[in-house]
Write a sequence for this structure.
């Protein structure tokens, strides 16, 4: 047996210091191994070379492990940054979309308001604020359909301001505009709530009286002309008057026929001396 040869070998090894349990760590163990390999006493020890090789391999593996750890940490850092960037991008995009939605809502509201404003402007006379000719034509169409459906005729009145051209020629168009605005207000105040009044053109006004027979429409026209005569202007030494032509709608006819009869009645009133109501 070879036990007698092992004893001298063991006597040449320095005893390994004991590490208390839970006290030694890897760095301390490496330091101890390095100290043993550096000790000249162990230069001839046959385990020195394998131990040195093992230590070198361990150092290589440790370096590779640290490199892998750094790479892993780097990937995790990049992943976190990417995730944060995605979240930030999402938040920015969400805020942008919310802003666009708010702008779109405001834009649509503005368009609706502008559309309504333009519609009102297209249907009203800018001087008197009464309905214009287009407005009156639409109301005539509607009222004609309703009159035929309910078998209840309406009456039209075309009113023309007497000698209005003289006012413009003597006092200018600004004075003429003042007269027209005052007459428009007087007409509106003298009518019933459901009557329709508008500026037909120039110094002419059209009055639409729904479901109104001719005799009652005549009373309303007289009230309107009296209201116009009551207006006073500082620059005029005479009262303003108006001539009126009346016509009642005949069921089934075109409203243009009713307008033509009212216009003809107005012409008779002008020819017969003005400041008159003809039907």
């Amino acid at each position: 047996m070879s036990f007698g040869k092992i004893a001298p070998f063991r006597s040449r090894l320095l005893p390994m210091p004991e590490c208390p349990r839970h006290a030694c760590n890897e760095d301390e163990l490496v330091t101890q191994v390095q100290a043993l390999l550096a000790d000249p006493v162990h230069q001839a020890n046959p385990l020195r070379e394998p131990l040195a090789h093992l230590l070198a391999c361990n150092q290589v593996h440790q370096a590779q492990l640290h490199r892998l750890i750094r790479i892993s940490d780097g990937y995790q850092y990049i992943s976190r940054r990417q995730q944060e960037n995605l979240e930030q991008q999402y938040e920015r995009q969400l805020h942008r979309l919310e802003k666009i939605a708010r702008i779109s809502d405001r834009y649509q509201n503005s368009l609706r308001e502008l559309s309504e404003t333009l519609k009102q402007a297209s249907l009203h006379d800018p001087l008197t604020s009464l309905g214009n000719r287009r407005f009156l034509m639409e109301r005539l169409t509607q009222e004609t359909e309703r009159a035929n459906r309910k078998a209840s005729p309406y009456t039209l009145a075309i009113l023309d301001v007497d000698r209005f051209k003289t006012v413009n020629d003597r006092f200018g168009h600004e004075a003429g505009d003042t007269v027209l605005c005052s007459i428009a207000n007087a007409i509106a105040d003298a009518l019933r709530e459901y009557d329709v009044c508008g500026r037909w053109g120039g110094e002419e006004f059209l009055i639409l009286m729904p479901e109104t027979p001719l005799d009652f429409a005549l009373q309303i026209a007289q009230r309107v002309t009296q209201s116009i005569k009551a207006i006073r202007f500082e620059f005029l030494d005479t009262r303003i008057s108006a001539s009126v032509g009346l016509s009642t709608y005949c069921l089934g006819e075109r409203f243009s026929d009713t307008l033509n009869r009212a216009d003809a009645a107005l012409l008779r009133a002008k020819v017969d001396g003005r400041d008159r109501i003809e039907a």
In short: Residues 155 and 248 are 4 Å apart (CA to CA). The chain is about 65% helix and 10% strand. The two ends are 154 Å apart (CA to CA). The chain has two domains: 24-122, 133-278.
